[in-house]
Amino acid sequence: MSDTIAHNTGAAGAAPSTRSYFVREHHPENGSLLGFWLYLMSDCLIFACLFATYAVVGRNYADGPTGAALFDLPLVAVNTAMLLLSSITYGFAMLAMQRKQLRSTLVWLGITGLFGLAFLSLEMYEFIHLIHEGAGPQRSAFLSSFFALVGTHGLHVTFGVIWLVTLMFQLNKHGLTPENGRRMMCLSLFWHFLDVIWIGVFTFVYLMGVLP
């Protein structure tokens, strides 16, 4: 309890006295970051399972198209650049926050969100193109594991963009408060985590997928 509790006591014929009790709230300063690290570890397990599944069934084409026939590496490379650039711009947002520059922080966060939306748009284009070519997730075990892994990552990026927009509204309303600083730090961990996962996807799924 962080509020002041006022307790009034009085005796017959005497004026009531007021006593104030101050109780300090016990809350670890880094509790939010610790909890978020635990969440990221659980997310690592999810992606580890998806990578393991792709490793096992990623060559089961069922007489369907292979990765070499489907993957457009130049498009995927551009998509990768969008996500990596978004991490750089988020780093600039963190630097602006440390300098207490609210406007610059919001601008860099907005640019980060645009890069994230560009990444999602290219990924959706790829999915729609594959499905249009008859290479949907039901076509083979290879495509099922591909859509599961890449789609789960895309879903995380979608949540990250929503979180980023929400954080921008909170910053605009409340400013660079310590609470918003912790939120920005947690989102930074999440965003860079998605970058690391995507590098694994790009290498393990796309680059190795085009090999004979």
From TrEMBL:
Coiled coil: none
InterPro entries assigned: Cyt_c/ubiquinol_Oxase_su3 (IPR024791), Cyt_c_oxidase-like_su3 (IPR000298), Cyt_c_oxidase_su3-like_sf (IPR035973), Cyt_c_oxidase_su3_a-hlx (IPR013833), Cyt_c_ubiqinol_oxidase_su3 (IPR014206), Ubiquinol_oxase_su3_dom (IPR033946)
The organism's place on the tree of life at top rank: Bacteria
Keyword terms of this UniProt record: Cell membrane, Electron transport, Membrane, Oxidoreductase, Transmembrane, Transmembrane helix, Transport
Domain spans labelled Heme-copper oxidase subunit III family profile: 1-210
Transmembrane segments: 36-57, 69-93, 105-125, 146-169, 189-211
One of the record's GO cellular component terms: plasma membrane
PROSITE patterns xref list: COX3
Topology in membrane: Multi-pass membrane protein
Any one Gene Ontology BP term: aerobic electron transport chain
Signal sequence annotation: none
Record-level Gene Ontology MF annotations: cytochrome bo3 ubiquinol oxidase activity; cytochrome-c oxidase activity
Pfam families (alphabetical): COX3 (PF00510)
Gene3D superfamilies: Cytochrome c oxidase, subunit III, four-helix bundle
Keyword field contains Electron transport: yes
Similarity remark: Belongs to the cytochrome c oxidase subunit 3 family.
Assembly and interaction partners: Heterooctamer of two A chains, two B chains, two C chains and two D chains.
Name of the protein in its database record: Cytochrome bo(3) ubiquinol oxidase subunit 3
